[in-house]
Amino acid sequence: MTPYDVLRVFCDAGRGYGNELAVVRDGSKIPGETERQAMAAELGCSETVFVDDPERGVIDIYTPALRLPFAGHPCVGAAWLLDLPELITAAGEVGVRLDGEFTWIEARAEWAPPRVLRQYASAVEVDSLEVPEKGEWIYAWAWEDEAAGRVRARAFPGRDDGIDEDEATGAAALLLTQQLGRALNIGQGAGSQILTAPQPNGWVEIGGRVVLER
Q: Do residues 89 and 141 share a domain?
């Protein structure tokens, strides 16, 4: 198989948890969409990134089931790995900045795929949810501390690709940030952490820690 790296994106302060991301640094070895889709399905990560131009930051993103113009945790992971000032996705140019232990990207909410943002009364209620029936892509969330901007969230892609729950999802966090219009500190999945901040003119920053798994 073509060589690839595995990262964990949106880790907690102890460098644990995070959502796995596969990155094929030499995307030219797998130029066709059909072959890329097959590799993404075989790897089984929630997303796989193919780097088409490591100097310009041109990337191509796939789930096990489909190609995405933009996705949050793949862009944060690729930004950390490639160490470039921007990435070029099918949706548009993604700004990048590194701030100590955090890697930040800047993107637009309209680039994110549709998500159902479903608010619950408490974090306990979110924690107790069962995986729903296939169909809608649901981002279940509740305030842990509204004054401090702390959110508890879980993500259910609703697809038949073996991924019942996403550990950390930057695109959904972007949509929630745009909807609420404020900076958020999101605890998602088993223990991942996503930071967000609205920016002028419809942009949103998404930040997190990244670890090279293998």
A: no
Alpha-carbon span 165 to 158, nearest angstrom = 8
103 within domain boundaries? no
Domain annotation covers residue 73: yes
CB 87 within 8 A of CB 93: yes
What is the average per-residue pLDDT within 66-87? 97
Mean pLDDT of the chain: 96
Q: What band does 161 get if pLDDT is binned at 50, 70 and 90?
A: confident
Q: What is the pTM of this model?
A: 0.96
Q: Is 51 within the bounds of a domain?
A: yes
Of the candidates 88, 38, 90, the one whose C-alpha atom is nearest the C-alpha of residue 63 is 38
Burial 130-160 (b: 16+ CB within 10 A, else e): eeeeeeebbbbbbbbeeeebebbbbbbbbee
- Indicate which CATH number applies to the domain containing 151: 3.10.310.10
Whether 176 shows a pLDDT value over 90: the answer reads: yes
Parallel, antiparallel, or unpaired: how do β-strands 184-188 and 47-53 relate?
unpaired
Answer whether 78's CB lies under 8 Å from 103's CB. Answer: no
**Number of domains forming the structure of the chain:** 2
Query: What range defines the domain where residue 83 resides?
Result: 5-94
Residue 110 included in any domain: no
